[in-house]
Every structure is written in structure tokens, then in C-alpha cells.
Amino acid sequence: MPFDFDAPVERRGTWSLRWDRYPGDVIALWVADTDFRAPPAVRAALAARLEHGVFGYTVAPAELREAICERMLRLYRWRIEPDWLVFLPGVVPGLHLAARHLLGAGEHALLPVPLYHHFRRALERAPRPFTEVPLVLSGGRWVFDEVRLAAARRRETRLLFLCNPQNPGGTIFTRAELERLAEFALAHDLVICSDEIHCELLLDPKPHVPIASLAPEVSRRTVTLASPNKAFNIAGVGCAWAVIEDERLRRAFRADEHATVHDPSLFGYAAALAALREGDDWLAAQLDYLRANRDLVEREIATMPGLSMAHVEATFLAWIDCSGLGAADPHAHFLARGVALSPGAQFGAPQFVRLNFGTQRARLAQALSRMRG
């Protein structure tokens, strides 16, 4: 079945966080949702629930638990059990739960940066002490600086945050890289909290490896956060989950359940189940489209004076180094040209910007032309 990702979709005036923030003719390529309509199967499932007409309190459907377990086994050869799943309205609440309940007061976390800003925000609001450990650019990929990571560990370090695939850098970490990271966690008795929300947005022919799938002893100390929200563009209906084998960690993670953290909505459950059951053809077509968008961005950025970027292996996000531009505020520089990007300062790197290329190609080409000036 063909899917038309070039079809323009007007999102202004729809309460869109991304498009309604900037008035006028600004092309908004910042917040990480796409401008593509969700898969037909998802829209049909939501329409069916709407037609039913009763939107009462809802439990997590057993069918969804089974679909998640089946998908993890099929895609990653990772065998999980239905009762390991803790459902959440989104991955961001999971980051906050990890900071508050997997760390005691005074216990310390390690934060590889640049990194999606909600990791840091979760630790700041808990509050819990943490150390930022810069990733390094090696062979065109953002990877761990293992020497600096080891040096940053303290006696009171208990939690290691991971983002795989990496946001904003776009790296798919290899099995060997993850094995060394897991060995580090095992050697120092660290819990790993791994955000793997972009795991199905792989643009290069490399496998995603859930770090918890490496070995039973790694699984027992890992909280894996996942969701179909990014891959199937359903963040507005919201459904996510944590995979937690260890009962003690799972109990700690659920401390705020029905207190400060609520369940996904009925529509979130319905959309997630339809996406996992019937969305694969749409997802494959979207990935083909995103690869072409990624290639366009990389070609154009390579020809713009003062800009550079690493190759994007996964996600629909380009992490652009503007340090050669001579602009004190790269975000403001491009906003003045009519393109709204995510400021790198959010991720701990003020001389960078993040560009969301999950949009129609004609609009993306127009934005790149404005950036060139």
C-alpha cells in the first residue's frame, strides 16, 4: 500500500506545540514530532473507540502486553515477560521516576552529554547530584568517552542514564559499545536507565540492541523506557512503558503510580496496540522517506560555511555544529532567517542546534535554503 509523506499537512491552529509557538512564516523544525499523519490502522483504531462513545477508566490491555513482548522477541531476540511492563503516559515521566525513586537522597548519577534535556531536568528537580560526561566524536559518530566516564564515577554513584539511539547525536550504539558500558555498570553496581524511544527509527542498516538484552545480569539492573510515540507519530495520544525485570526496581519505579503519575489514556492504549500490530508497512515506508530527508540535510549542511554535522544513524534529528558560524546564538541566527530549530544549549552544547527533518521534503528544502541565506 503506498503512503504519501509528501502530502502537506497544516498543523498551525491545531494546538501544535511546534507550529503554534512561532507566528508568521517561520518553518518550525524543533520539537521531535513529525508532520506525517499516523498510520491508517492507528487512525482506524481511534475512530472505532470514538464511535463506541464511552471513555471510562481503562486498564492496560493484556493484548498490548503480549504485543510488546512478541515485538521485543521478534525484533531483538529479547525475551521479556508481561508483568515486567509498567505503563506510563510518556517516556519523560519515566525519566523523572528514575531520578526520584532509583536514586536515594545524595546518591549520584552519570549523564552522557549532549543529551535530551529532560534527563538533566529530572535530576535537577528530584533533586539528585549528577556529573555530565561529554560524548566524543569518533569516526563520524558520537560515542562514550570511557576514560572520562570512569573518572566521573563517585563512591555514591548509583545510576547511569543512557539514550540509545542517541538524542540528539543520532548514534546507534553497537553491541560491543553497550557490552563495555554494561560491564562498567556491573563492576560498580550501577542501575542503568535506558531511553530507547527511537529504537525503531533506524536509518542505517545497523541493529538496535536493547542494553537489557545483553545478559540476565544486565537485565536485572536495567530500566528500559520505550514507546511507539516517536516511530508512529502518536505522542499526542501518549502511551509508553518501562521494562523492568527486577521486582525491587519495579516496585520503586511504581511508587508514584496513581499519585503524581497517571496511566496512559484509553486512546493511547488503542493507538499503541494498532501501531504494533498493523503499522509495520507504514513504518518501513516512513523510514525510506526519512533516509532521503536525512541525506538531503547532510548534503546541504556540508556545503554551508561554518556548519558541520555527524552522520545520523537513527532518529529524524540532525545535530548541527555551528561553532564555525561566528554567531553568539545560533538558534537566534536561524530564527531570524525564518527557521526555528532546537537550541543546543538545551542539550548542554550552546554552539549547536538540532534540526527535525521529519517533515515534508519540499518544506525541508525551503528551510535549508533559508539557513543557507
Please render the helix and strand layout as text.
Layout: H1 17-20, E1 27-28, H2 40-52, H3 62-76, E2 85-88, H4 91-101, E3 108-113, H5 117-125, E4 130-134, E5 136-138, E6 141-143, H6 146-152, E7 157-163, H7 175-187, E8 191-195, H8 216-219, E9 222-226, E10 240-244, H9 247-253, H10 266-278, H11 280-302, E11 308-309, E12 317-321, H12 330-335, E13 339-340, E14 342-343, E15 352-356, H13 361-372
Helix pairs in contact: 2-10, 3-10, 4-5, 11-13
Structure description:
- The chain is an alpha/beta fold and 373 residues long.
- 37% of the residues lie in helices and 16% in strands.
- It has helices spanning 17-20, 40-52, 62-76, 91-101, 117-125, 146-152, 175-187, 216-219, 247-253, 266-278, 280-302, 330-335, 361-372, and strands at residues 27-28, 85-88, 108-113, 130-134, 136-138, 141-143, 157-163, 191-195, 222-226, 240-244, 308-309, 317-321, 339-340, 342-343, 352-356.
- Strands 2-10-9-8-7-3-4 form a 7-stranded mixed sheet, with helices on both faces. It has a 4-stranded antiparallel sheet with strand order 11-12-15-14.
- Strand 5 (136-138) and strand 6 (141-143) form a beta hairpin.
- Helix 2 runs antiparallel to helix 10 (266-278) and helix 3 (62-76) packs parallel to helix 10.
- The longest helix has 23 residues, at 280-302.
Provide a concise account of the structure shown.
With 373 residues, this protein is α/β, with parallel strands linked by helices. The chain has helices at 17-20, 40-52, 62-76, 91-101, 117-125, 146-152, 175-187, 216-219, 247-253, 266-278, 280-302, 330-335, 361-372; strands spanning 27-28, 85-88, 108-113, 130-134, 136-138, 141-143, 157-163, 191-195, 222-226, 240-244, 308-309, 317-321, 339-340, 342-343, 352-356. It has 2 domains: 17-40 and 280-372, Aspartate Aminotransferase, domain 1, CATH 3.90.1150.10; 62-277, Type I PLP-dependent aspartate aminotransferase-like (Major domain) (Aspartate Aminotransferase, domain 2).
